[in-house]
Design brief:
It contains 13 helices and 21 strands. The protein is of the alpha+beta class. Helix content is 31%, strand content 26%. Helix 1 packs parallel to helix 5 and helix 9 packs antiparallel against helix 12.
Length: 400
C-alpha cells in the first residue's frame, strides 16, 4: 500500500498532544494523532478525582522544576491559564476554584476531553486509537512513520511530535517511548524519577504510622530550602497528602524531610494557655485539642513529654513545641511510578527551542508535555504546561 501523507503526526492523544493537534491543523494542515490506548485523554479522565484540575490561576514558570528554570517562560507566557479558561468557558463547561488557585470541572473531567475532541473535529484532525508506532525514520522530506495496531501502515509527514507523556501511572499505559525516541535522534534525556508521589518509611517508623493511617493534619514540610504548607496524610506505607506530594519532587534518597505541624498555629502559646486553664490535664489531652487524638498521643511520646501540664515549665513546653515544629524524619523511598502523578526529568530542554518546542538539531521533530524536563507543582500546573507547550509547538507548525 502507498504511504499516506500528513503534514504532522502526533504520538499521544493526551492533553499536550490534542492541544498541539488543534493548533497544527488550525490553518488547514493535515494532522494525524495516534495513541495505543482505547480512548483519548485517559490521564485527563482520572485526574482530580474525575473532575480534572485543568489549570491553576497562579501558574507561572516559578511553579516548575527543570534544569533550565527559564525554559518554560516562553510557552507559559504566550498561552496562559487565562487563555485555557477562556476556551473552557466558550464550551460552556462549569468550573470552580477549590483551593490555592486550583480550577476543577463542576461536572466531570470528561467535559475537558469532549471539548478537545470537538476542537479537533472542527479543524479535521484525524485520530487513530489502539495504534502504536513501530518506528520513526528521518527522510529527506520529513519522517517515515511505521504504524502498528488496528491500523498497520506507513505514513509520511513533515513534522513529528512526541506527546506521549512520561512513565507515571503505568496502568494507564505509560511507557518510556518518548525518551527512547529522543535518544534515537541524539537528544539527551535528564534522569527521570517519580514525582508528586507518596513517601515511604522503614518498619521502625511504620509501627507508629500505621496506628495513625487515615489521619490528615496541616503541616509545613521542608526539604533543603524548599517547603510547602498543605495537608499531610498518614498511610500504612508512610506519608501522603498535598504537602508530601509536593516535597517529593525535591526530595532525594538519604535526605531527611522536616515536618512542622500546624504551621499557622503557635503551639507553645496553645500549651501555655491550656496549662493556665487546667494544669492537671495531661500533655496528650492538651495536644488533642489542636491535633487528632492519635497524633497527639504519638507526638507526646516522640517528644518525650507525656506527663501533666503542671509538671512542665514554660521552657519545657517551649522545647516540646519546638520539636513539633522541627520534626526531622528520613523517608526510605517513594511509592514509585505506580502512584506518581508525573515524571520528573525528561528530554533535556537544552536540546529544544523554548518558543517552538522543536529539536534544535532535527528540524520538524517536536517534544511537548510531560516528556520534556519541565515538571509542575501539584494543583493544575502540569496540565497548564501541557496546554502551553502543545499550543507553542502546534502554532509553530501551523505558521511555518
Amino acid at each position: 500500500m502507498p504511504a499516506e501523507q500528513f503534514d504532522t503526526v502526533i504520538l499521544g492523544a493526551g492533553a499536550a498532544g490534542m492541544m498541539c493537534a488543534i493548533q497544527a491543523a488550525s490553518r488547514g494542515g493535515r494532522v494525524l494523532v495516534v495513541d495505543h490506548a482505547k480512548a483519548p485523554g485517559e490521564k485527563i479522565r482520572i485526574s482530580g478525582g474525575g473532575r480534572c484540575n485543568f489549570t491553576n490561576l497562579h501558574a507561572s514558570a516559578a511553579n516548575f522544576i527543570s534544569q533550565n528554570k527559564h525554559f518554560a517562560k516562553s510557552a507559559l507566557s504566550r498561552y496562559t491559564q487565562h487563555d485555557f479558561i477562556a476556551l473552557v468557558e466558550r464550551h460552556g463547561i462549569a468550573y470552580h476554584e477549590k483551593t490555592l488557585g486550583q480550577l476543577f470541572c463542576d461536572n466531570s473531567a470528561k467535559d475537558i476531553i469532549a471539548m478537545l475532541l470537538a476542537e479537533m473535529d472542527a479543524v479535521a484532525c484525524e485520530l487513530r486509537l489502539t495504534t502504536s508506532i513501530d518506528s520513526v525514520e528521518r527522510r529527506e522530506t520529513g519522517f517515515e512513520v511505521r504504524l502498528a495496531g488496528s491500523d498497520t501502515s506507513t505514513v509520511h509527514c513533515r513534522n513529528f511530535v512526541v506527546a506521549c507523556g512520561g512513565k507515571s501511572i503505568p496502568k494507564m499505559g505509560a511507557t518510556g517511548r518518548g525518551y527512547q525516541l529522543a535518544e534515537q535522534f541524539g537528544l539527551p534525556v535528564v534522569e527521570t524519577r517519580p514525582a508528586l508521589v507518596p513517601l515511604t518509611f522503614g518498619e521502625d517508623v511504620l509501627v507508629d504510622f500505621r496506628e495513625m493511617a487515615g489521619l490528615a493534619v496541616d503541616a509545613r514540610i521542608s526539604c533543603g530550602k524548599t517547603h510547602f504548607d498543605e495537608a499531610m496524610l498518614f498511610t500504612h506505607r508512610g506519608l501522603s497528602g498535598p504537602a508530601v506530594l509536593q516535597i517529593s519532587s525535591y526530595w532525594r534518597e538519604t535526605q531527611p524531610i522536616e515536618i512542622a505541624l500546624l504551621p499557622s498555629e503557635d503551639i507553645f502559646d496553645s500549651l501555655r494557655a491550656a496549662k493556665k486553664a487546667n494544669g492537671r490535664r495531661s500533655i496528650t489531652t492538651a495536644l488533642s485539642e489542636i491535633l487528632p487524638k492519635r497524633l497527639a498521643a504519638y507526638a507526646s511520646r516522640f517528644a518525650g513529654s507525656d506527663g501533666q501540664l503542671a509538671d512542665m515549665s514554660d521552657k519545657a513546653l517551649g522545647v516540646l513545641a519546638d520539636k513539633l515544629k522541627h520534626w526531622e524524619i528520613y523517608p526510605i523511598g517513594s511509592e514509585g511510578y505506580r502512584t506518581a502523578e508525573v515524571t520528573l526529568g525528561g528530554v533535556d530542554t537544552a536540546s529544544l527551542n523554548s518558543k517552538t518546542m522543536e529539536a534544535k538539531t532535527v528540524g520538524g521533530l517536536y517534544f511537548v508535555g510531560e516528556v520534556v524536563d519541565v515538571t509542575g507543582w501539584l494543583g493544575g500546573y502540569n496540565f497548564q504546561w501541557a496546554w502551553s507547550s502543545g499550543w507553542a509547538a502546534g502554532t509553530a507548525i501551523a505558521t511555518a
